[in-house]
Design brief:
Blueprint: E1 2-4, E2 7-9, E3 11-12, E4 15-16, H1 31-47, H2 53-59, H3 64-75, H4 81-87
Antiparallel strand pairs: 1-2, 3-4
Length: 88
């Protein structure tokens, strides 16, 4: 952050940032597919089976706590949900 004309300016890779775009719902970039793949890979490594596509679709829009509760219902109460999310 530097001051320029009395305003704070964020510098990224040596250049000023004038704006940012946040794509929260996948409108511009298909991030859901990548997220599903990383969660499936992490769940395979940690519990020996991939989270199903159906489960992951049900999780869209849920809080992490609610998604964890759903995972426990589907994959058992001992599913290491937080570790899977962290690893993914």
């Amino acid at each position: 952050m530097i001051k320029k004309r009395g305003k704070n300016v964020l510098i990224f890779h040596g250049k000023p940032v004038h704006g940012a775009i946040f794509d929260m719902d996948g409108t511009m970039f298909d991030t859901e597919r990548l997220r599903f793949q990383t969660l499936q890979q992490a769940s395979q490594e940690l519990i020996g089976q991939e989270f199903s596509h159906e489960y992951l679709m049900q999780c869209l829009g849920l809080s992490a706590t609610t998604a964890e509760q759903l995972a426990q219902r589907l994959y058992g109460v001992n599913v290491p949900y937080k570790e899977i999310r962290k690893k993914s």
